[in-house]
Structures are given as C-alpha cells and as structure tokens.
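Hi P.,

Sorry for the delay on this. The queue was packed all week, but I finally got your sequence through. Input first:
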Amino acid sequence: MLKSMLLLIGPTIMIALGLHGLNSVPLTFFLFYGWLLLISGARIRQCLKSERNLLFLKEGLLTGFITGIIFLAIIFGTVSAFSETFFDSAKLQKLLIDWNFTGDHQIMLILILLIVNPLLEEIYWREFMYANLILKMNIFNTLLITSFFYSLYHMLSLISLFNWPINLLGVLPVFLAGMVWGYFRHKFQTLIPAVLSHMLADLGIILVYFRFLHV
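Then the structure:
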C-alpha cells in the first residue's frame, strides 16, 4: 500500500519541487520525466515490443485522432473565447520567463511537451500504474485513482498560470481526459489511441501559448 501511494504521489512531488521549489521549467522537466523514466522504464521497453500495439490499430487510431481533435478544439476555443477571464497575459509571460520557459531552449521544451510528455505520461499512468492497480481493484476504481493523481500535479501549475477560480476548475477537464484515456487503454488494450489523443490535446495548449503568450 505504501509503495503504491509513493508511486501515485511521486510525480506530484517532482512537479512541486521543480516548479515551486526551484522555479524552473527545465529542472521540473528533468525531475518529472526522470521519475517517469526511472520508475516505468521496464514498462516502456515492453510497450515498444508488445504485439498489442498492432491490435485494433485502425479503430484505435481513428478514436485517438477524433477525440484528440475535439480536445484540441475545446482547449484552444475555450481559452480564446475567455482569455481575459482565464489569465493576465503580461503577468503570465513574466512568470514563464521567471520559470526559464524562454530563450534558445524554448523549442526543445515545446517538443518535449508535444512528444515526450504524452508518451511518458500515458506509459506511466495508463500502463504502469494501470497494471499495478488493476490487480487489486476493479476497472472503474483503477481509472478513478490514476486519473485523480494524474490531475493532481496539473493543479500545481494551473494554480500559478490561471486566475481564481479557473485554476482549480481547470483540474476537472484534466481529470476527465485521464478517465477517457484510461478507458481507451482498457478498451483497445494498447496505448496508441490515448497517446495520439494526448498529443493533440497538448498541441492545443501549445497553440494557446503561441497565440497569447509567446514573445
């Protein structure tokens, strides 16, 4: 039980340490993705070799693509419509500069968010933690717990990025996305739909950045 709790809360600790302790996005990435790689490294190799990734490939790709486009449209459309309510652009730009999300390494950080982030997060939560918890509880509770802890560390960044109470309410769609991607993992028995959908959702966030915050 203690081990499972550490695995569930570990990513949140890494985000808290890097973002609010060290005030650096690059260091946060190093700590966070380092944890995901260290803990689920063996599972990554298994996923890359698994024949499950060929199962339901066509249907899974279509499902992942359609839901990803929907998530992208919701993210970009909602923020575009209510940007003045959601955040103060000037204040947020300064915060991102303070967090070192700027300069020559900015493109690298964006590529990490678009490619590395969805892949590692899905392997950690919808494969590694899913496999650990599904042995101890039913599918609904497994999805509920993994989605809760997945959304928990997102709250740490949302609190700083968005105005009150949007910063707390913003955790809800993250949680729901986690439930959807967990369901994809359960239904298709492969991470491909969830990873593709996740990538497109993250693209929506990057588009928001370039539309409102890039300097």
